[in-house]
Amino acid sequence: SHPSLIPTSEKVFALLTLPPSSSPSYLPFLITLYNLTVSLTLMTLGRPKTTLNRLRYFDALGPVVKVSSGAAIFMSFNVIENGFLRGNRAAPYHFSKSLSRKVIEKYGLQEYISEKVDWRIHGALNCGANSCPPVEKYTVENVEEELERSFEAFKENNILEEGEGVKASLIFKWYEVDFEEDLYGGKKVEWME
Hints:
By secondary structure, this protein is α+β, with helices and mostly antiparallel strands. It has seven helices and five strands; from the N terminus they run H-H-H-E-E-H-H-H-E-E-H-E. A hairpin with a 5-residue loop joins strand 1 (64-66) and strand 2. Helix 2 (26-45) packs antiparallel against helix 4.
């Protein structure tokens, strides 16, 4: 094979330029990129079988994009979700933030890190698990309504009234710091696997 030929998926993703968090295209771009690349890697590599392999999977795989400095950077799935969309918070079962200060400064990434977490992303990002929300289309023009609709549907399917309490997806526990409202009406929560 010719050394300058690059598989189509790598070539396409390397040509994409990451919009800054202040851009109207930021949320639709990152949500779509995340969902598309997770889906492609799952179809290509299959599902990780163990918890440890799932953790490695989200740290080791993801697209390459250009940033305003002109550098091409690798963004793992955890960097997209937790480094950029969640304001550089630690991913579940991780002890440190997704992006180190050194990496942020070296590549000028501060402009890509959300200042305020939009908790509705948890109803839009599909990591490939059965409990994840379906993959939807997100547009610059209608992202607010699309995120609201997706999150309400996700909440309806993943927070279930049960007697005096509720059963809720572990996603709500893992990311509870992101949510601004009491999603359970003050009721006792039992976490669903």
